[in-house]
Amino acid sequence: SGALTRAAIFDLAGGATGQDTGMRILIVGDSHAGPLKRGWERLRADGGLHGGVSITVHPVGAAHKLVLPFWQPAGDHARITNPRFRRRLSRIPPSGPRPDAIGLSMPFWSGRVVRKMGQQDLSLHGIGGPGRLVSDAVFRQMVLADQQEILALADYLLSLDLRLFVVAPPGYFRDFSDLPRLGPLRLLRLDAAYRAVMRAELAQRAVPVVDVPEACFDRQGFMLSAFRNEDPADTHHGNSDFGALMIGEIERWAVARALSKS
Asked: What pLDDT is stored for residue 11 in this prediction?
């Protein structure tokens, strides 16, 4: 199958610890949570999950649907209102014991804005090359409009005294469908600018980010093909190797957080 071994995955991730924390982690996300779930399932089957961190992964729905209202405040939880999403998860957090932390696999995917920039031949100052320039302020408003529903959800969950973190999606692969229109430099710099806006927003809320390890990128900044989705037609999602890698990163983050609180 060509799948990376557990040892190779954790070598890329920087190793793992056997510290028992008893932490319960809920991951909720767009379609990028799918590879996380598959990676988790693979690690569970292989006996490779960290025994001291309990992780549940819920891919809710496609990212392009998250720009529309998909949830409502409902007392001690957010009620999912999108009918298709509700078939997968009806509320955040689910009923039962509250998770120790909720990871959102939503706030960093720049594809919607990047595609719009490409379709309208727009660019930013400092990138160079083709494209009509938009100001940093206008670009920031584009990002915040794109993430409006997701940031509002984060704010509501924080108001319930739930601890949040963000799980970064993969970067772009070299065969990303919009790369010919944008060119590699504009694509990577637009993505970096998008993520910088969101990092600033999350920092204001004291929401940490579990990042993709630098070892997953090539020298230019594209994701390594080893982590590309198994489907040849899917040019922007990760595979189960990527999911397993990021589950390991989440486990390590949870352990470090628990030890820092002890």
From this structure: 43
Give the whole-angstrom CA distance, residue 125 versus residue 128. 7
Helix boundaries (H) for 19-171 = 33-46, 83-86, 111-119, 136-146, 148-159
Residues in the chain: 262
Mean pLDDT of 47-51: 84
User: Edge-to-edge, what's the strand order for the sheet holding 71-73?
Assistant: 71-73, 78-80, 91-92
Decide the pairing of beta strands 209-210 and 164-167: parallel
Integer Cα distance of 80 and 91 in angstroms: 5
49-62 per-residue burial string, b: 16 or more CB within 10 A, e: under 16 = bbebbbbebbbbbe
The model's pTM is: 0.87
The amino acid present at 21, given as its one-letter code, is: T
Rounded to whole angstroms, the Cα distance separating 28 from 249 reads: 16
pLDDT digits (tens, 9 = 90+) for 126-172: 887 788 999 999 999 999 999 999 999 999 999 999 999 999 999 99
User: Which residue, among 197, 172, 194, has the nearest Cα to 183 in the 3D structure?
Assistant: 172
Sign, CA torsion 133/219/229/235: positive
Q: For 10-20, what is each residue's pLDDT tens digit?
A: 444 443 333 44
Question: pLDDT tens for residues 177-195?
Answer: 999 999 999 999 999 999 9
Give residue 245's identity as a one-letter amino acid code: L
Question: 223 pairs with which residues across the strands?
Answer: 217
Q: Which of 115, 114, 118 shows the shortest CA–CA distance to 132?
A: 118
Name every residue whose Cβ is closer than 8 Å to that of residue 169 and which is 6 or more positions away in sequence: 32, 105, 108, 109, 212, 238
